[in-house]
Amino acid sequence: MCGIAGAFDIKGSLINRQKIQNMLDTMPYRGPDDSGIYLAENIGLGHLRLSILDLSNAGHQPMYSQDKRYVITYNGEIYNYIELARELGQLGWQLQGHCDTEVILAAFQQWGVACLNKFNGMWAFAIWDNLEKKLFCSRDRFGIKPFYYSFENNQFIFASEIKALLQDNTIDATMDEQTLGRFIRYQKKPNENATSFKGIKQLSPGSYCYLDKDGMQEALYWQIPDRNYSEKIASEKQLIDSLEELFCDSVDLRLRSDVPVGACLSGGIDSSAIVGEINRKKRTIKTFTVGYHGVEHDETDYARDVIKQNEWAKPSFSFPNGKDLFEVLKKTTWHYDEPTWNAAAYSWWHVMKLAQSKEVTVILNGQGADELFAGYPTYYLSYMRQLLTSGKFGKFHDELKAMQKRYDIGAVEIVKLLLGPMLTPIKRKFQRPRGNSTANYLCQDFSGNYLKDESAIEANGYLNLSAHLKNDIETSRLPMLLQAEDRFSMAFSLESRVPWLDYRIAEFARRLPDNNLLDLGSTKKLIKQSLNKHIPQSILNRQDKKGYSTPGDDWLRKDEDGAIREYLSSGIIEQQNIFDKDKLQNIISTKGLKNVPKNFWQILSTLVWYETFILK
Hints:
Layout: E1 2-9, H1 17-25, E2 34-40, E3 43-49, E4 63-64, E5 70-78, H2 81-90, H3 100-111, E6 121-129, E7 134-139, E8 148-152, E9 155-159, H4 162-165, H5 177-186, E10 201-202, E11 207-212, E12 215-220, H6 236-254, E13 261-264, H7 269-280, E14 285-290, H8 300-309, E15 313-318, H9 325-336, H10 344-357, E16 362-364, H11 369-373, H12 377-389, H13 393-407, H14 411-423, H15 425-430, H16 444-451, H17 465-474, H18 477-490, E17 495-497, H19 503-509, H20 525-530, H21 537-540, H22 552-558, H23 563-575, H24 581-587, H25 600-614
Parallel strand pairs: 13-14, 13-16, 14-15, 16-17
Antiparallel strand pairs: 1-3, 1-9, 2-3, 4-5, 5-6, 6-7, 7-11, 8-9, 8-10, 11-12
Helix pairs in contact: 2-3, 5-16, 9-25, 10-18, 12-14, 12-17
């Protein structure tokens, strides 16, 4: 895990070394072990190194290919680099070191763009061709590793973080209202390239691009597959065995490291399965859990159940008290480069802080399983709408009864949730948000800029499960989670790895019938069947799902030290044009805070972001 930056002027103008250095200087935590810059006329590549594999100087970057034709700056890990090095050796390559960077260069020379399909890992890299004067860039299949860029006035400038790009004052850093508005109301972006800045984009997950004197050409090498129901499906026993085999191999690959490895343990199914699989290998693993004394958000009892079942796990717990809440909100917003969406960021920050304090450099985490295997209860609503619209009334009845029992909710309430999006699509296109939601605090002019875009009104409920899952993987939930996973781990110079997002597991999950994902009120059915021996029964039987839950919003409302009130009284309300000024003033109109919206964290993070990045 590292930080990268670079600039390429396609018309031949010289690149200044200081331009590259300035970008690297904004993110030193991404590479505290080494740094380097390659400069040649109209191309500059910069690198910050966090040493994970081959800790010697042989891993220094930017790195030349053996024939000196190519130069690479690279962030990430190719987990199957050992197998690829062996394959390249059989083709005549004699690799000098033991790091995956050298393997990428040789693979690119051997197979060209097709090498991307051979990589199992996470990456963002740029390779300069000294002979043809071309720049080749690529990003991993899910966008686990960030790649931001600006392409204006013939200059392609890229970096691992937005704040690095903002060091160049020629980049359009004005606020993108459509992207920000959609994020605030729907927690999603218009497309995979979008950011909250007009002049800054992302290289799409699963894509690559070439740049030369004629411009930029971008293409996909991989997409999340459409769910294929026409394929012949194996027996349930075969599916259970296949998932276990894939998962075990994925964890195996992600344990490859020359530095200490640990694991986040939330008390949920996904992280518990990872810890259980590592324990099965009889390998000592440090685990990290954040909890909250005496509140409903605490999940440490579940984490302790995992520890009891796994003798090789060595646990560490942290119990933050919220006194640093607003400071953490400001820090996470700065590292995220965009507004964060809820107070889960507080728990996330503290679990990474805990891991760093226990002297690990690599951590494994459970991101991705929910979006691939339908782990959120909201997916059930999409599934049941699908049953209704496809005429499967018997199955719908069975699921309705199961949901009533599992979630202790009445049939009438369930039906209201199901039918609302189906019966009022026209009304919803023009309806302002109701109640105490964050979106209801948007000012009229700002919200009008994105409500005119009909594609932004994509049912707060989907009519089928497949569309809901795909949206969450491509433009909504998963991209936000992965952005946070990268930024908050790198803030503490940690490399985070996500075994559930092995592309082989993803392709397998997209071939599964619905009833292997959701069945009789239960989510992630196949994971529970396949990995039940790794997971305590108390967790398998959980009725709730928290996901880095935190009492952050409650703490913000109390504002015990007055920090929030002081911030809102500092003039930021009058300076911004995102939220309704009168509604924000009403929050601080009396002693303490009142009429605070449900997700107050998002409003505060948006204001902090606006002040930090837009008013700078």
